Amino acid sequence: MRRLVLLILVAALGALPVSLTGGAAQAESLDVEAVIWQFGRDYPGAESNDLNLPIKTVYIKTHDGTDWMSTYDSHPKAVSGPDALRNLVRDYSYQGIGVVAWFVPYGTDIEGQLQRAREVIDAGVKGLVADVEPYSGFCAQNCAMLAEQFWKPLRAQRPNASLGVTYDPRSWWLGPAAVQAWLSVSDMAAPECYWETFSGQGVWGDPGGCVMQSFTDLRTMTPGRSVEFAPMLQGDSSASGMRVALDTSLAVGASRVSLWRRGVVPSGVWNEIRAYVGDPNRPCWVTRSDNCLFRETSNATVWLLQGGGRFPISSPEALSALGYGFEDVLFAPDGFIRLVPLLPRDGTLLKEVGNGTVYVVYGGGEFPVPGVDAFN
Question: Exposed e or buried b for every residue in 303-320, given b needs 16+ CB within 10 A?
Fold first, then answer.
């Protein structure tokens, strides 16, 4: 039997919670990946050498519909076919950098798009990501049709390929883009959290709020499936905004994020990312450490994290009794508390000050321990 943890809660915290909510598995580290749209626009960009950047993977656009990217990008490295893509994969591998391909599905040439997608996958990329947006120049009114007649057959034809979807996460666009249908056979979701672009649009204009809401919506759209959450973050932003987005991504269990896009990320943001990747110290709400005090940005309730669960601090007196002040309370994005169970993990022992009964937590319930002998 594993060693039990004793939590002493002050009486001011009130009754112990009795319900349990699901949480997200946490990642220990975060990889940052750069998106390349056109080589002529994204190189040299903020940095001229990928080896100077804290990245191990790049997302390279390979085609639109059935047109190779060289149709739109005159740069010598623009993808003009499978051989050119294989050369890029080889060249990046010499730098220790992997290549993920991305593309825009559109139009009604199903067989032509299937052929392009197969050629890209077979060229040796780490994955293929479809940019699904219900706008002109993207899948537009054909999003649902392409999900059924192109994307799902591609999954059947390349069952071992890593397929991903990037999309506008704002709730009113999820239906028109048929995002749920695309995700139904995908391994990875990369919602586009462009908080600067979405400024003034509620939660979407906040870096932490956008990541948190996108994660919540992904779980709703993929019931019973484990789809990797790897948000695409707005690179042309501030260092402080980027840190909030990285913290929140890590807190919800993401192990990687991508940046839109390589050529527009300011040097200050790259410096922030370098520092973040190399720093093991995270805010306690990100690591969900014991004795962490936090509140959501727009909610005044203060919570204490203990044993993997959360306990409400009912008053300033309760906070003081724990030996803390409001200056010790950290801010987490709205929606974070939904990820933290109300009860701590199984095996935790709970006892309120002034009450001699000790309870053990198991399966979402609390059970009284009858006496000292029971601890053996």
Answer: bbbbbbbbbebeeeebbe
Which letter does DSSP use for residue 308 in this model?
T
Beta strands across the sheet bearing 359-362:
5-9, 348-352, 359-362, 365-368
Q: Which two tokens stand for residue 20?
A: 């349990």
Token readout for 204 is 């979407």
**Phi then psi dihedrals of residue 148, to 5 deg:** -80, -45
Asked if 307 contacts 5 with a C-beta cutoff of 8 angstroms, the reply is yes
Q: Using one digit for the tens of pLDDT, what is the confidence trace for 5-53? A: 445 444 444 444 433 334 455 667 899 999 999 999 999 875 678 988 9
DSSP labels for 49-101?
-GGGSS-SEEEEEEEETTEEGGGT--STTS--SHHHHHHHHHHHHHTT-EEEE
In the numeric block, which tokens belong to residue 287?
Answer: 């690591």
pLDDT digits (tens, 9 = 90+) for 130-179: 999 999 999 999 999 999 999 999 999 999 999 999 999 999 999 999 99
Is residue 337 within 8 Å of residue 215, measured between CB atoms? no
Give the list of residues 6+ apart from residue 306 with CB closer than 8 angstroms, or none.
Answer: 7, 290, 291, 344, 348
- Residue 80 burial (CB count, 10 A): 16
Rounded to 5 degrees, what are φ and ψ at 235?
Answer: -70, -35
Q: Quickly tell me which residue has 């014991």 as its tokens.
A: 290
Please name the amino acid found at residue 105: P
pLDDT in tens, 67-80: 999 999 999 999 99
- How many CA atoms are closer than 13 Å to the CA of 193, on its beta-carbon side? 30
- Among 168, 170, 247, smallest CA distance to 207 is for 247
Average pLDDT over residues 283-291: 94
CA distance 351 to 345: 15
Q: Report helix, strand or coil for 26.
A: coil
At residue 372, φ and ψ (nearest 5 deg) are -60, -40
Which H or E run includes 285? helix 284-287
